[in-house]
Design goal:
2 copies of one chain form a homodimer. By secondary structure, chain A is an all-alpha fold. Chain A contains 6 helices and no strands. The longest helix of chain A is centred in the last third of the chain and has 34 residues. Chains A and B meet through helix 3, helix 4, helix 5 and helix 6 of A and helix 3, helix 4, helix 5 and helix 6 of B. The structure holds a DNA duplex (30 and 30 nucleotides).
DNA sequence: CTAAACCTTGCCATAAGGTTAAGGTCAAAT
DNA sequence: ATTTGACCTTAACCTTATGGCAAGGTTTAG
């Protein structure tokens, strides 16, 4: 139960890197971990759960700033789930916006690429349209 | 025909910022522009066309490094259009990959958000799943 | 003549790390 | 007992593509 992991072990288990864990500590996302006499960081299972929480949230694209809020809500037993959902939906909107932007680029790029034969001749619709049109 | 623009005017016309134009010059993307006696940069129509080319390529999500290649191909009358098309298609692949990643996040996030009532109670499926599941 | 609106360089900050350096520590093998 | 190799420490710089600010010079309009 009381197993303590070094930063490398915690990194391996959580899927983060040791560097990320140190960064999260320095930026205040997680509390400073206790150290051995020689200065090695040690992580208990509670802190490991926090690290895995962070890893999962990063996988979903949440910013570290959002994750700070999520961690704080997670640890507050009197939270309102409304605030959590707001965060998630705001993030979802950003994702949708980003997808729409990328799809717009994709459409234009496909048209451009179609207008270029892609052979050994210099003639190329991509360059022509980048040079002239109002894309 | 021989109109010369200051950096602020060139920025306005191209849609870039003066800061970006200076950065592009310093990073070697565009050549150093001529200056007035007092040191102000001046842009002629050819350089303005380059700036607009850059702006359009940025709007399509090309990196500055890609744009360096595109500019070089554009200015080389003996280019092979094949190389231009390769660049565009490689960029298209990156866009598709990014879209797929975002859509994956989107799907998971929608499920998570659905599992949270979003009211004034602390109970929240988003936090629960970030805390436990293997997302 | 002066004040606003330009322009200049240079440095710092962002997000989220990766990389490298220079050095301390620990455990196992010799 | 010592050495080796894997691990840990901090610090500092690199990345991408800008934004922002400071401190100062220039130009233009009133």
């Amino acid at each position: 139960m009381g197993t303590l992991l070094t930063i490398g072990e915690a990194a391996k288990v959580s899927g983060l890197t040791a560097k990320m864990i140190r960064n999260y500590e320095q930026s205040g996302l997680i509390r400073k971990s206790p150290r051995t006499e020689s200065g090695y960081r040690l992580y208990n299972s509670e802190q490991l759960n926090q690290l895995m929480f962070i890893k999962r949230a990063r996988n979903l694209g949440f910013s570290l700033s959002d994750i700070q809020s999520l961690l704080s809500l997670w640890q507050n037993p009197e939270r309102e789930s409304r605030l959590v959902k707001q965060l998630a939906q705001s993030h979802l909107e950003q994702i949708s916006t980003k997808i729409a932007e990328l799809e717009q680029m994709q459409q234009v790029l496909i048209k451009l690429a179609d207008s270029c034969k892609g052979d050994t001749s210099p003639q190329c619709g991509i360059l022509e349209q980048l040079a002239q049109s109002s894309i």
